[in-house]
């Protein structure tokens, strides 16, 4: 899969079947949309393409208004989003920098400069509530008119439902915030996980008897707290672990979000390795403790809860079980 930061240059442009959206989480509704794009691209002998945005438009406007808390929490980082798009058969992804200039494009300018000239769109599918252009002035009816004028097909995909629930990124965020990983998996079509490279931390965990793998989280995540997890990428099978995702209020006042993972009975140099942390169960919310001994006691309790969880789970293994 080819990834472009912004519109491809003239030499890299190719006629495509396209869809446009944020695709946060790439849930089952997104997957249905991507499947239609992939099928149309194959039938018409086009490349299957996705245009997505960084930052999320709502995140951009929240920052511009001086209130970042209004931005939606992120389900997935860009790495995981791109991997999911690739897994769904997409040939090229355009990661468009959402900026003041881009937000100011009129619907007509968006059609001409982005869809027609920039991407050579021949077939386009959007959600039935799709809006585009400055102040969301463009809608599906306008897009269909533009398609007739410039020679590309426009199709819409109705909302995907799961029973009475609309499958959406918002519904996934609600499930994750509540620690309902079964519901999140039902909406995503796969277990929820965060991937990234292991970075150096403050090494505080090892002084407390709980060395951790640290993953940087660059955006406000859709969940926070203490979790039972398993780690993929360090061994042939996933390893049992306990994790903290949040701002670590007891030891850090910077507000920086970090995912810290303590893998049970495991010792190896993992810096720089890419891992995937799969979330299984929420133990509790993040708390601020008065001192390190109190924090250590809480970590000990969290680890004990996690070990009991894995002990009770059929077929559960830790690193020690395979040595």
Walk me through the structure.
This protein has 323 residues and is an alpha/beta fold. Helix content is 32%, strand content 26%. The chain contains 10 helices and 14 strands. Strand 7 and strand 8 form a beta hairpin.
Write a brief caption for the model:
The protein has 323 residues and is of the alpha/beta class. It has ten helices and 14 strands. The strands form three sheets. It has a six-stranded parallel sheet with strand order 1-4-3-2-5-6, with helices on both faces.
Give the tags.
alpha/beta, six-stranded antiparallel beta barrel, six-stranded parallel sheet, elongated
Order of helices and strands: EEHEHHEHHEHEEEHHEHEEEEEH
What is the share of helical residues? Answer: 25-40%
Number of helices: 10
Using only C-alpha atoms, the radius of gyration works out to 22 Å
Topology diagram in text:
Elements: E1 2-5, E2 16-20, H1 28-44, E3 47-54, H2 57-64, H3 78-87, E4 92-97, H4 100-103, H5 107-118, E5 121-127, H6 140-150, E6 153-157, E7 161-162, E8 165-166, H7 169-177, H8 181-188, E9 193-199, H9 204-207, E10 213-216, E11 225-232, E12 239-246, E13 258-263, E14 274-284, H10 292-312
Parallel strand pairs: 1-4, 2-3, 2-5, 3-4, 5-6
Antiparallel strand pairs: 7-8, 9-10, 9-14, 10-13, 11-12, 11-14, 12-13
